[in-house]
Amino acid sequence: MDTGFYTGLIDRYRSILPLAKDCKVISLCEGNTPLVRCRNLEWANRKGIKLYLKFEGLNPTGSFKDRGMTVAVTQAVSEGSRAIICASTGNTSASAAAYAARAGIKAFVLIPDGNIAMGKLAQAMMHGAIILQIRGNFDDGMRLVKEVANEAPVNIVNSINPYRLQGQKTASYEIVEALGDAPDFHCIPVGNAGNISAHWTGYCELAATSNSNVTHACGFCDGDCSFITSPKTTLRPKMLGYQATGAAPFIKGAMIDEPETVATAIRIGHPQSWDFAQATIKESDGWFYSFPDDQILVTQKLLAENEGIFCEPASATAVAGALHDIEQGNIPDNSTVVCTLTGHGLKDPDIAIKQSNAMLVTIDAQLDSVKRTILDNL
Ligand SMILES: *Cc1c(COP(=O)(O)O)cnc(C)c1O
After folding, report:
1. Between 20 and 30 A from 273 (CA), which of 1, 33, 280, 305?
2. pLDDT tens-digit profile of 280-298?
3. Which residues line ligand 1 (CB under 6 A)?
4. pTM for this one?
5. Residue 343 carries which DSSP code?
6. Bridge partners for 244 per DSSP
7. Are 344 and 63 in contact, with CB atoms under 8 Å apart?
8. In 108-117, which positions are buried (b, 16+ CB within 10 angstroms) versus exposed (e)?
């Protein structure tokens, strides 16, 4: 029964998700995130560019990972699984822990020792995950998770789990529904490269419903997307994947063993969806590019100060990319551009406070002092 009351993306997009009809849905009402039009970034307005931010930080655990996790955990539970496992730079562990709690199953999460944002660690701890801090980075954790899944009864919920990408593709559906068409460009940060691939899957499915020339590797529907009834678009965006300079295997064209960046969510040297992401860039006629940490942080602050949106550093990489490519003319005037803001800024308060030069003055608890500060700073 459709009461108009939003109950999560599985209920909303059931017909395009590969789940059994009678499965018990594990949901926290994820998805349905706002698509916010930029109003104050003048450089964009000047060129007639419509710049939108898909704020995935407003998902239940504060990142887009929830889109994939609801589908992956629903499937795991319907297969009878009692435990899930993931390697994580932070957000996957937070999401896995929350959905496992909701499902009443166990979550094991492997995180890099140090280098995890405090908010993300707090989430995994509060939701009762069993946390394994490994002396190694995300890529080491990923290798271990794949090995142990062969030896113990645990279900991997990293993005190598195809149900994750199926859930994440729904973001493209929401964007097309909101805009009435696909954007011309979609800018997105790239770490393990699952999300850029998931978005492309979504856009391809949508285009395939109205254009029989569009074929794609969606994995579940074998290119027959006739079951998708709405919305319709013939357009597919150019996909632009952005990395941090210290963790940019796609720019190098090869895996990297010691990735380093302040944007810990994309501190990944061995992306698991390498081939899929390469195909995405090629098919969509898009490109990869990378930015140094200082530019990523400046962009994070620019968004927070000018648009009132606080995203985490990895997410700001997408906007750094859009800004750069608009300025360079790689994105032509009058284009419609969507940037995915993958996670919420509150995830990583330490980085925010450290880089902010916000005015913080200590004054006497007296009217005069408050008044003087106001008058001095108007
Ligand atoms: C996971 C994550 C990414 C990277 O997504 P991939 O699918 O691994 O490329 C980017 N930003 C944030 C905030 C994330 O949590």
Report:
1. 33
2. 999 999 999 999 999 999 9
3. 63, 65, 91, 159, 189-195, 265-266, 312, 314-315, 342-343
4. 0.93
5. B
6. 247, 291
7. yes
8. bbbbbeeebb
